[in-house]
Amino acid sequence: MGTTLLGTGAYLPSKVLTNEELEKMVDTSDEWIRERTGIRERRIAEKESVVDMAYEASKEALKNAGVKPGELDLIILATLTPEKRFPATACLLQARLGAKGVYAFDVSAACSGFLYALDLADAFIKSGKAKKVLVVGSEKLSEAVDWTDRSTCVLFGDGAGAAVLGDGGGEVLSSKMYADGSLEELLYAEKCGFIKMKGRELFKQAVRSMAKACQEVLAEVGVKPEELSLVVPHQANLRIIKALAEKLNLPEEKVFVNVDRYGNTSAASIPIALHEAIKKGRLKRGDLVLMTAMGGGLTWGASLLRY
User: Fold this and answer.
1) Catalytic annotation on 264?
2) What percent of the chain has pLDDT over 90?
3) Domains 2-168 and 171-306 share a fold
4) Which of 70, 90, 107, 244 is placed for a possible disulfide with 77 were both Cys, Cβ 3.0 to 4.6 Å?
């Protein structure tokens, strides 16, 4: 029994915050931001909540998958900006979708959240406990950043991405997920506090950890990097993405990038990018796609999927 990606969806708020606008808010410049991060602009949710964005992305994913909310067996929502302390944001999404009674819970693994949730969904499907699972990453990071801190406020944006998974012909071929709580001081936020980050140390850890996870996943199933159709990495920083591609010996055209337009959307990053890659024809049925992320925790991992 394999896990098939049946459909994807995404939602980005209409409000665009450019680097030029940030220059008026904090001591920074468009050149400085682009040179160090590759980011030109990001989206900001002015009216939308985490649930609103998750709902819109989920509706599109369900439509593209040809699945009705009531057919779902499970909803897993990854976020580090939950709607409330409790109940789980997944439960609020379940109610909005009208999927009454469907098993629903949140995953908190920061930027690795979608891959953690995907790994769980794959386990549920392969064990026979679920046939159709909705996996969502939704973040409102604009509420978690200090807009006077130029080292962090330029990095993050809001948005949501979703994927419907089912039992079928495609397959999650391999997944490796990791965590190391002893490194939490590299990227964290206190309760009701702002995001804090040690950028230089985090950069090194991100490249090293993601590259190793990718290599392990590929080695487990005997796939060579050149056999990949596409790599969809977490969109945190263009320099990290390029360094990862170099370590994996991959040409840039095989690595999907949209960090320039959306910034770092944490758990929503990979599903948004995956949806865009499919819409743009960068992925076709039967293609091999490698996804990888690292986030606060520290958490990291990689998944190899045959689309």
Assistant:
1) yes
2) 97
3) yes
4) 90
Q: Which of 19, 91, 234, 275 is catalytic?
A: 234
Is residue 237 annotated as a catalytic residue, yes or no?
Answer: no
| pLDDT, tens only, 173-220 | 999 999 999 999 999 999 989 999 999 999 999 999 999 999 999 999
Active-site pick, 91, 111, 153, 214 = 111
Q: Given a cut of 90, is residue 2 above it in pLDDT?
A: no
Catalytic residue among 19, 64, 237, 264: 264
Residues in the chain: 307
CB within 8 Å of 106: residues ≥ 6 apart: 76, 77, 78, 79, 82, 88, 89, 90
The CATH homologous superfamily to which domain 171-306 belongs is Thiolase/Chalcone synthase (3.40.47.10)
Tell me the HSE value of 139 on the side-chain side, using a 13 A CA sphere: 33
Over residues 149-159, the pLDDT tens digits come to 999 999 999 99
Residue among 112, 94, 116, 114 at smallest CA distance from 103? 94
The answer to whether residue 192 is catalytic is: no
Six-digit token pair at 230?
A: 């596409």
Q: What architecture is domain 2-168?
A: 3-Layer(aba) Sandwich (3.40)
Domain ranges for the chain, please list them: 2-168, 171-306
